[in-house]
Write a structure and sequence with these properties.
Layout lengths: L2 H21 L9 H12 L1 H16 L10 H37 L9 H18 L2 E9 L2 H8 L1 H18 L5 E4 L4 E8 L5 H17 L7 E8 L7 H17 L5 E7 L3 E7 L3 H5 L1
Parallel strand pairs: 4-5
Antiparallel strand pairs: 1-3, 1-4, 2-3, 5-6
Helix pairs in contact: 1-2, 2-3, 2-4, 3-4, 6-7, 7-8
Length: 288
């Protein structure tokens, strides 16, 4: 449910409960506000949940305010209990939601680098392919492999290798937009999925991307280079996510075999196969 739909459902339900509570003041409908508060905290966030809780407390109390047989003390106690109960319900659900989001975040990501794990990235790729076909968007799928990464571990230790991975992941995440995806699919292999417009700009965008991630690696404590295979996916492409991942992986290994510190770019053409263009270049010269 979208945020707008959630707000509409919560406002509508609260209005109906308010009407029913006013018409049948003795029916004891106040507890029915609690599920509304819980839904608001879960779907709209903590601040919205507390706001809804206060609104529900006021609307639940209003039918009882004109009663002449209620003393000010009794009304005060009733108001305090109602407000405290609703706020407690909101706080409890908000706490559950924070824990849920934290655990979900950890489950979807690689713990060392914070990038999406392989399974999560595959699911995102499948979803994005379907969306791109609907809105006629072009995608750039890229795999990046750090060159001679084992040498870092052998010469400086695994702690140094972990530092390189974290530094690279942090820099790469800063390069992608909110709607793009960055994941880790192996020890020193990472994958990116980005939207490119227009499609003809895909090749230059891929070269620019390789230059930027190479600059991130060069600026680290243990400088290394990377080889990148990039696949430009048009919206009319009929290949599935697994086939595309396999294709871009092959392109990356061609860049590796071509001398490393290079980028090779391919086009996924309909369902007919793969067209590749080898475009190696020296990253240090390119970024200078």
């Amino acid at each position: 449910m979208s945020r707008e739909s959630a707000w509409f459902a919560i406002v509508t339900t609260t209005a109906l409960l308010t009407w029913a509570n006013g018409r049948f003041a003795d029916a004891g409908l106040a507890p029915l506000y609690i599920p509304v508060i819980c839904a608001a905290c879960w779907s709209l966030g903590e601040r919205a949940g507390y706001f809804v809780a206060l609104v529900c407390a006021v609307t639940a109390i209003m039918p009882h305010l004109p009663l002449s047989d209620s003393s000010p003390l009794a009304l005060g106690v009733r108001v305090t209990v109602r407000v405290a109960t609703y706020l407690f319900a909101a706080g409890t659900i908000a706490s559950f939601r924070r824990s849920f989001d934290r655990q979900r975040h950890l489950a979807l990501r690689d713990r060392m680098t914070g990038a999406l794990n392989g399974e999560t990235f595959q699911a995102f790729l499948k979803e994005t392919l379907g969306t791109a076909r609907e809105d006629q968007g072009t995608l750039l799928l890229a795999i990046l492999d750090l060159d001679d990464f084992k040498a870092i571990n052998n010469e400086h230790g695994h702690a140094a290798g972990d530092t390189v991975l974290r530094t690279f992941a942090r820099g790469a995440r800063e390069l992608v937009r909110r709607d793009d995806a960055f994941g880790r699919i192996g020890g020193d292999e990472f994958v990116l999925l980005l939207r490119v417009r227009p499609a003809e700009a895909g090749e230059s965008f891929a070269r620019t991307l390789h230059g930027r991630v190479s600059a991130v690696l060069a600026a680290g404590e243990y400088p290394v280079t990377c080889s990148m295979g990039a696949l430009i996916i048009r919206p009319d492409n009929a290949q599935n996510a697994a086939s595309l991942m396999n294709a871009v992986d092959q392109i990356m290994y061609r860049a590796k075999r071509g001398g490393k510190n290079a980028v090779e770019i391919g086009w996924a053409e309909h369902a007919q196969g793969l067209q590749t263009r080898e475009l190696p270049f020296n990253t240090r010269e390119q970024t200078a």
